[in-house]
């Protein structure tokens, strides 16, 4: 749990802050900041009333900011006029709260700063980014990877428009999307995410979509909002799989590519798809080393097609290649039924490749059991 260090002797102020945070953080009254106490997500509140009259406010703030080692510093004061507030901000505080303010007013400031601190310093879940020109195929691959490779709490973010292909593949109704999560960012944590995001019962996978179930692109979402939200969501889950889908903002995608632990580029064996993926990579403008670190997933791989995975990877500048053979009839049935291939006992060559991409041991299915049984019969007969 996050900690709020209150530099004060006023227990009433501590109780007011504690009540405003509603159990989201512990409040500790302290007389000085010790760096060894700043290990986890935390922030520091300076009580203006605790600063001696003979000491300059700017000097007191500067001392605390230096001891804070980059943690957010907030001033609690009754002087809410413009001039003293500007002096405090120039001295180094991140924000100011009214000392006798309402709980909602105090919580709005502190929760935002705590979330930013958590995103910067807390342990982050693994982030996998799926890119590609075929948006529906990317959504299905991202879904199967999230189910097959996720451990613990796993979140799938599908940015396909106008509606989420992942929601259809999982047969889920969605009424909470990225715009809602951005609106809740000041109080968003693992508990709130679990209770609000759509959840796939059989696998436990959580889903957030760009459209939020509305069938339309949300209004007012900025790339900065989404980038900050993704960083925060990584602190709420052990694994986050992001299907870029309809996202085409180069700066946002470049930032996500830089932060992702793994980037998968999905492309079919056609010149047109290669050209579409090349344009996507050009829009992102990632460094050559980052593109080389991506993995090319060859969608619907057919060995007889002369344009093989290695040639495709060389054309795109991608380092590694993995073929994804697809049984189109099975995939279409799975999509229509709302039962992902990752939930099948034997997902065939496609799921074997997905598990290999996720670094998961092959799952023995029906054909494997039959093969072992036949081998035992042959061994006994011999």
UniProtKB/TrEMBL annotation:
Q: Which residues carry this modification: 4-aspartylphosphate?
A: 47
Question: What Gene Ontology molecular function terms does this protein carry?
Answer: kinase activity
Q: Coiled-coil intervals in this record? A: none
- Domain of life where this protein originates: Bacteria
Q: Which UniProt keywords apply?
A: Kinase, Phosphoprotein, Transferase
| Annotated Gene3D superfamilies | P-loop containing nucleotide triphosphate hydrolases
Task: Specify whether Transferase is a keyword of the entry.
Answer: yes
InterPro entries from the UniProt entry: P-loop_NTPase, Sig_transdc_resp-reg_receiver
Q: Does the keyword Kinase apply?
A: yes
Q: Name one GO biological process term.
A: phosphorelay signal transduction system
Domain (Response regulatory) spans 1-114
- What SUPFAM superfamilies is this protein classified in? P-loop containing nucleoside triphosphate hydrolases
What is the name of this protein? Histidine kinase
Q: Which organism is it from?
A: Sphingobium chungbukense
